[in-house]
Design a protein that fits this description.
Mean pLDDT: 88
Number of strands: 0
Shape: globular
Order of helices and strands: HHHHHHHHH
Distance between the termini: 39 Å
Bound molecules: zinc ion
Largest sheet: none
Helix content: 55-70%
Oligomer: single chain
Structural class: mainly alpha
Low-confidence stretches: none
Number of helices: 9
Strand content: under 5%
């Protein structure tokens, strides 16, 4: 899946949440208490949520050093890349280490919904009483990550059950990276984003 599709997809999801969530009155309190949702967000917070989602939408591919996220996070992630290489080399002698190395490879642990959800739960608990901006960034990034995993599910599959099983699962309907279908998806996401951003501005101007 192209980085552009992950960008447009994550923006479309986050913008739709900002535009439509305020109309959903009955979101249980335990949900809103746990995850920051753009229900009555100010325009700057709504923008922050959408931008965070856009960056979050690129994060899972940081497991490839030459990806957009990988290039920006190389300084932070070089120990991970190094550990992966060492595990894969040692894996030729000790088989279980090869599995661990593969788990750190592309579409491994970084593409596990369970791993990211667990990480999000821990960070949410840590920053529960923190600044609203921080909770907004965290929630936006999580939504972006989830949109990435959802899209990858349809283009090659992801290890849905990782870390318990690294086998990639994919639905019957899937498409190839850079295919005509992906271009269509991109155009649909751009159209949704524009409509939702227009709706957000319209609603805010009527307040
Ligand atoms: Zn990916």
């Amino acid at each position: 899946m192209m980085a552009l599709t992950h960008r447009t997809g994550s923006i479309a999801v986050a913008a739709a949440m900002v535009a439509l969530l305020p109309d959903l009155q009955k979101i249980p309190e335990y949900v809103t208490d746990f995850i920051w949702l753009p229900q009555a967000a100010s325009l700057p917070l709504a923008a922050c949520f959408i931008i965070s989602s856009c960056y979050g939408g690129l994060l899972p591919d940081a497991d490839i050093p030459h990806s957009t996220a990988g290039k920006h996070l190389r300084i932070l992630l070089w120990p991970l890349y190094l550990i992966k290489k060492v595990l894969l080399i040692l894996g030729h002698i000790i088989k279980p280490l090869k599995k661990a190395g593969t788990a750190l490879g592309h579409r491994g642990l970084f593409h596990s919904p369970l791993f990211h959800t667990l990480l999000f739960v821990i960070l949410s608990a840590l920053f529960h009483d923190s600044f609203e901006w921080l909770r907004c960034i965290l929630a936006g990034a999580y939504i972006g990550v989830m949109s990435h995993l959802f899209l990858d599910l349809f283009s090659g599959g992801i290890p849905l059950l990782a870390p318990f099983s690294m086998k990639r699962q994919r639905p019957a309907i899937s498409f190839k990276t850079g295919s005509f279908l992906e271009v269509i998806f991109n155009l649909v996401f751009i159209f949704i984003s524009v409509c939702m951003l227009y709706l957000i501005v319209l609603k805010k101007s009527m307040l």
